[in-house]
Design brief:
Elements lengths: L4 E5 H11 L13 H17 L3 E5 L7 H4 L10 E3 L7 E2 L8 H12 L2 E4 L5 H11 L5 E5 L15 E5 L8 E3 L1 H8 L6 H12 L14 H11 L2 H9 L7 H9 L1 H11 L8 E2 L12 H11 L2 H10 L4
Parallel strand pairs: 1-2, 1-6, 2-5, 6-7
Antiparallel strand pairs: 3-4, 5-9, 7-8
Helix pairs in contact: 1-2, 2-4, 2-13, 4-12, 7-8, 7-11, 8-9
């Protein structure tokens, strides 16, 4: 056992399974189960390859939180399938993926894996809160989302990201040193510096406009030079000669966006997380009969077998 805490960005992982595996994976009633099987396989690989002592599958209670959209209405707006007024908006999700999510949750419960969510917050916030609370053992965040690079750290306990953007076979283990090298950011503050850089760079996939005319390399250079976005903005407002005039004008034009970007982009490490059960990796299934029932009903076959064999008590 490595003694690590594995925090899974569940939606990121099952979305990727859905698109990576053939839609011919179906139950007897015709229900598509490729996301279920892929997600189960991913957990099996995590247990086999990373050997965490603890594991939490983190969930979106609200994929587009109001506290973010109140500040930046464009946040994930292009993914909205239906607006729900005071309730969370409905995300645009493939019709054949939506029915698979309850099956995934049933399977996690039957095996005895912990799940966690926070009302009004995203899974990113849940991961950030749990990672921040952990001070004794290493944390490994498993995701296909670069946004969580901001959580890497060396103290009080190391936190790294297992990035599966290209699938588990090409998973990358990224800590502060790797993030600093990849993005030319300061090693000592690689996580926070990544968040600051990403605010300036923007991200069309999340509806973040960024600062027009400032790309990733320029943003990284400025953050490294001044230490933080706040310090850069202070220098710019004071007409510091180290900030080129063109850059000062661009930052001034984006002032309204930059005023709200930190709250939108940074994970909310104070999210009120609720966890379903203790996060120790189960040695054996919590409910073997239920696992067998779900396997038979949803034609999960080899995927369930691989997950069973990956448990510490197998």
């Amino acid at each position: 056992m490595t003694g690590s805490l594995a925090l899974l960005d569940s939606a990121s992982l099952y979305f990727r399974s859905f698109y990576a595996l053939p839609d011919s994976m179906r139950a007897a009633d015709g229900t598509q189960v490729n996301a279920v099987r892929g997600f189960a396989d991913t957990i099996a690989r995590i247990l086999t390859d990373r050997h965490p002592a603890r594991l939490v599958c983190c969930l979106d209670a609200d994929w587009r939180p109001k506290f973010r959209t109140d500040l930046l209405p464009s946040y994930k707006a292009h993914r909205v399938a239906e607006e729900n007024g005071t309730s969370p908006d409905v995300e645009e999700v493939p019709d054949t993926l939506t029915p698979q999510v309850p099956i995934i949750l049933d399977l996690l419960e039957a095996f005895g894996f912990a799940t966690a969510e926070a009302a009004g917050y995203e899974a990113d916030d849940v991961i950030g809160a749990l990672a921040t609370r952990e001070t004794k053992i290493p944390v490994e965040v498993i995701t296909g989302d670069r946004d969580l690079f901001q959580l890497v750290r060396t103290e009080p306990s190391p936190a790294s990201v297992i990035y599966v953007g290209k699938g588990w076979a090409k998973a990358e283990v990224l800590g502060p040193a790797e993030i600093a090298e990849r993005y030319s950011l300061p090693l000592e503050t690689a996580g926070p510096a990544y968040a600051d850089m990403s605010m300036m760079r923007g991200d069309p996939s999340d509806g973040l406009p960024g600062v027009a005319g400032i790309g990733e390399k320029t943003a990284a250079k400025l953050i490294t030079q001044f230490g933080s976005l706040d310090a850069l903005l202070e220098a710019s407002a004071a007409s510091d000669p180290r900030v080129p005039l063109k850059t000062r004008l661009r930052l001034a034009d984006a002032a309204d966006y930059l005023a709200v970007a930190p709250t939108v982009v940074r994970v909310a490490v104070d999210a009120p997380v609720e966890q379903s059960r203790p996060d120790t990796v189960p040695a054996t299934p919590a409910d073997p009969d239920r696992v067998a029932e779900l396997t038979e009903r949803w034609n999960l076959g080899n995927s369930t077998e691989r997950l069973l064999k990956a448990l510490p008590g197998a």
